[in-house]
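Protein 1 of 2
SEQ + STRUCT:
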Amino acid sequence: MAAFLYRMGRLAFRRRWTVALVWAAVLAAVGLAGMTAPEAEEEPFSMPGIESQEAFDLMEERFPGAAADGATARVVFVSPNGEKVTATENKKAVEAAIAELGDGTQVASTVDPYESGAVSEDGSTAYTTVTYEVDASGLTDASRSHLDESLEHARDSGLTVEAGGDAMEDTGGPSGAAEAIGISVAAVVLLITFGSLAAAGLPLLTALIGVGISLFAITALAGPLGLTDTTSTLAIMLGLAVGIDYALFIVSRYREERAKGRTPQEAVALATGTAGSAVVFAGLTVVIALAGLSVVGIPMLTEMGLGAAGAVVVGVLIALTLVPAVLGFWPNAVLTRKDRKARRAGGTPRETRKVNGGTRWASFVLRRPLPVLLAAVAGLGALALPMTDLQLGMPGDEAKSTETTQRRAYDALAEGFGPGFNGPLTVVVDAKDADDPKAAAETVSERIGGTEGVVSVSPAQFNESGDTAVFSVVPTTAPTDQETKDLVNTVRGDRPGIESEAGATFEVTGTTAMNIDISEKVQSALVPYLLVVVGLAVILLLVVFRSILVPLKAAAGFLLSVLASLGAVVVVFQQGHGADLLGVETTGPIMSLMPIFLVGIVFGLAMDYEVFLVSRMREAYVHGERPAQAVTSGFQHSARVVVAAALIMIAVFSGFIGESDAMIKMIGFGLASAVLLDAFVVRMAIVPAVLALLGERAWWLPKWLDRILPRVDVEGEALTRPTEPEAEPAEKDLARA
């Protein structure tokens, strides 16, 4: 591996114009394809294999044109100063608002609250549901503007008017603020790390080129493959992050080799052969983690994982080819100012510092490995404890800021009609084989209506064929309460008896039931996902490090950091400690997909740090250093760069904490916390402590396994040369450039 990449880096340096033109052509080609590709049709969210989705599919089949997944806006009217919404003037204002709402071009129907009984018992509140012919992503700007204008006109009458539902959601693409923050902080970190504008700018430039290629490719393939906007979001985030990191490691190793007196061409080749090998295997671990999202069985996650994996592959290829080529154009530009001045003056190369912050920290850990290990594990364990109280769900309007109309509508409905009114269950009765479909639907309705925890059941609505009925069930508790989940399970548990009595089958769906089903599916898929991803990564690291204990230690450390970060998320977003500092106004269940996101994304990034840090230790050990010396050497050469890479990751993810959406805050906080804990506690403390305690045993591998495993030479052992580096004539010419 190292020898092959050495030749690749040398070739890229020598044929830099060809390499640069090839990548420029690739960017132009995919850019043209992306810009000219027809706009992809937004496909509705689906979750195969759960009852809620099956019920939705049945509704679409039996109620053609009814748009079971059509967008809805629930508009709430609250009378002022203790008046009744049934008062003459207020009633006229409500009816006028409903009429105006119904005039929208994409509106399928509106409901008169006075005819449907959608008025609270105290007469203070009424609501109407506006149903659209398309889902939320299909709403035009004109439809959204009409909805907003209708609400404003209704407020002019003196009524308090708020609206919730998916029709009110902003489906626009990402603003780019988080990415801009991440790039800005990354530039500062790179500048401090390298002390050179060129060295700081090169990783940013190549990373942006890689992200551009990936984004245009996803856009071009969105139509044929049915990809959604969410696919590009994760690809941009990770493509930018790993693109910077991988180029950072190549440039750092190049500068190190130049400081030893290597010529630019030789330094590029050695950097690509050694650091490039680590880049390849680090990229493979990320790809495994992202592609493994397919195991969960959620189409959206599969698309996001594969799209992001493709972006990572592009980042690896650019780091191995374009970065060496750019270094060929400006070989001295990435060096420090002192080095550039010394070379212009014909001075000797500066030797690499033997003592730095990395070596001092490694020496500290090596002197007291057991206390450091116990303190780190105890700290992560304490942070992970709240994870035992983890409650998964899909936070809705109740998690939004009180400054939003969606949250105010939610609160008004809860106050006027009860907390369960914000999360009604939808029951679909399939009476196709029943002798009397209406009687069967009535039996199902009565039995469910008599279940403890049910406030009311709406009249059943039949399709044109009269063989399928739909009715709503209002629970006594809020959508995210455990009691609501228990009610859904109770109704489904009583199904055999109810269906036997009614002579018809039924299924429970609706947003609340869908969220419950998604949470359960994610929980059941988490363990298989972990087994697949961690298992494959352990095998890969076994090949890289030729050790049994090092990969196992890496996996155990990752699990500790993920559990601790999930515990931190629970403390803030579920228990509410410190929530005010992040602008979180309401606590509740943790987003169902959060554990999968953390495991998938953070695992790949954590293995990046593991490969880059430990590969330098392995390289030193293979080249004759004792285990303790190898740990110190690894920290001397890699600690500063790993810290810089982690700070860049944390900056990118922390940018999302400033978003107004609670779920985006949660994702940003969780990912930033996980990277912080993994990079600075696991990789910087637990890794050297464990290796110090293990000593020679850390690199033990049974002889029979050593014979079976392929040799990839990540350490660059084959690149060791006995000759002293000599300056080539070409270097003098390049130095003058």
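Protein 2 of 2
SEQ + STRUCT:
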Amino acid sequence: MRRRIMSAIGIAMLLGGASTAVMAQDAAGLQLNEKGYFEAPAVNILAFSNWYDGLFADAKIGGIEIIQRGVRSATNGDVRLAATPGQWDPAATLVSRKVDAAAGIVETTLRYAQYDWQYVVRAEREGNGARLSVILDKPVPRALEGKAGFNLEFLPSAYFHHAYMADDLAGFFPLYPADAMALTAQRNAASGRSEGPGAEPLPIASGRRFVLAPEDPARRITIAGDSPISLYDGRNQAQNGWFVLRSMLPAGKTGTVLQWTVTPQGDATWLRTPVIAHSQLGYAPGGPKVATVELDRNDKRRPPLRLMRISADGTESPVPTPAAREWGDYLRYHYLQMDFSAVRAPGLYRLDYGDVKTAPFRIAADVYADAWHPTNDVYFPVAMDHVSVNEAYRSWHGDSHRDDARQAPVNHEHIDLYRQGPTTDTRFRPGEHIPGLNVGGWYDAGDFDIRTQSQYQVIRSLADAQERYSLTRDTVSVNQARRHVEMHVPDGKPDMVQQVAHGTLQLLAQFDAVGHAIHGIVEPDVAQYTHLGDAVNKTDGLPYDPSLKPGEVKDGRSGTPDDRWAFTSKASALNYGSIAGLAAAARVLKGQDDALARRALETAERVWQEEQGHAPDMFSHGNTTGGPLDAEMFGAAVELLRTTRKPLYAKVVMALWPKVEKGFGFNAQTAVAAVPFMPAAYRKAMIPAVRKWHAESEAGAKANPFGVPITTGGWAGSGTVLGHALTGEALHRAFPEIVGPEATLRGVAFLTGHHPGSDISFISGVGTVSKEVAYGNNRADFSFIAGGVVPGVLVVKPDFPENHEDWPFFWGENEYVIPEGAAWIELANAANRLSGGR
């Protein structure tokens, strides 16, 4: 701690060059607004407006949160059982939340059920800040004495290059964690350490009054407590950790046992800088072109929104456009909108609004033509499992997971929504090696598991793109015999076909190994699951042999139990989904790899017959065991019909239509794919559902300035936008007299920058300004994978749209997943065709 402490005189010198003329907050102080959070100029304090949704544990959205000058810089203010809790550490369950608007109090009751212990966190106005109190009816349980404390976490990137003061001593927030650690008797599983002793970080500084960023009013927050407060750096425990202020709860006491006063620095003159939401990719000459200005609701300035044409010599000239109109309020902002669709001349343009200027963008006939190339050329090769992947000087990863996989234990609920039922449903005993699974497949997301549901979804999506748009692009060499991939090196085969083949190999391996589709293959523990870097280093690549000692290697086997687990409980939904993927693959593999195409179709038809011959296996857990059974069966029947043209499958499609019609929005793309192979009565039966979808889509388009469905869950909504846009494209293709191209093109614009919160493109490397800090497996480097699609705009309840470009570890905002990558390839090509491309 002494290394980072300096005197009060030193901090005064630090502040000497900074302006001390900081405007006082409104005399009325912090107010509890009609939306249930505290508000003052440039400051919001949320009190349990958000809570952990339980999907993947702590998402850094919950408890007491602070938004200061448009940046959510603090979260997770609550009673926790560790100084720097990890993603899977215990958190209390929210029991109730009561808002007393008149008194300016939010009172939240929470409970740690396993300790039969309940407590209240009260947040109430106190001048320009909030007083936070922890209130107990029963003392801290003996098992939690010395563990339970009140924490408030601060976003590291918001405080990099800033100072703090702890009472009269000062220090600087470290750019990289390097603090002292203390050995502990128990290892924290969330730390990423799979072996060796446990360790917990020691405090950086302590005091009863902290001032964060005293030199910067934009980040200055004062926290004063009635008991000692300690500052910790959670990144010593895990790369996604935050700075944490913490006070311990006293033992043996009830009533109000702890109080903090939290005062973020406000500014009555502050206005959020306007955002000009637009497509970073640009626009087709004949397509719709809408720019939306996002304003602080207190911003009454109205400079003109201008479209500027940029010449080769750098001169800029304004282009005549309609004036921006007042759209109205949405979430916490006010919006203006300008439609400049009448501008058709190809060229280079930008928009400006007062002092705000966008990056340049194009109007061009081929604006969408290469928008899918980064996803094809980079993202999918990098996601390929069971091969080494090289890009010129750079090795992305080695031949990972050659030791796949061990049978998961029975009656076991695992991380990442995997679960094994009461039997293995295979010939393998729990812990036994299942041979043959170490081929094909893609890393599901920013982590490294193979989720079967994602695999067959991607195969179908890529197969559709290949068939519909005749994608012959060849920039990747894939050598399955050598288990090696070279990026930016053609090999004479279409990349799309080779990607479909890679996914097909994994699906076939599952049927060959155990006789049915499995949930997936995932890391055996949190330490391996949180691995960052080259996946080849996660395991030793050798199948586990329990007769050997840890670290011992003999006859190509290893005594180190680091192999991934296969979750194998039978689920008919997964079998039908895999049938659909294999049947689709057979069509695009034919003529390129006829042997693999035959294996795929033979397996699909055999498994279909087997499934139709018995009652369905209904095992279900999380999002790893397939979609609704009727929908998955419908998809399988449609893909088999498309591939074989057999009347058998047409009859099943017709019989299932009334069931899948109820979820038409989710099944429309599949339903449309069957139209060319079905009697006219089938298409006619779809028309009422199509009309209903179109009416609901157009009504929903008016609910926000961006014309797309914007979700409000813990995982942001790029996937929903992609799905809606592709559904619109499919329906426009099949029912052009009912559905136009508008929903599709609105979706493309949203994903590439026309959305709330910012104007950044959510596809890395696509558009002038795109995601460059994302949650890929290289997230610890604050980097990106070109062509990956991030979840995008997360609406922090009740009204704050957020997507951080300075902190990659927000998985709900920034994590790449493979289905969205495949969907973007489809959507970009659809937009190109709708705009007059090939």
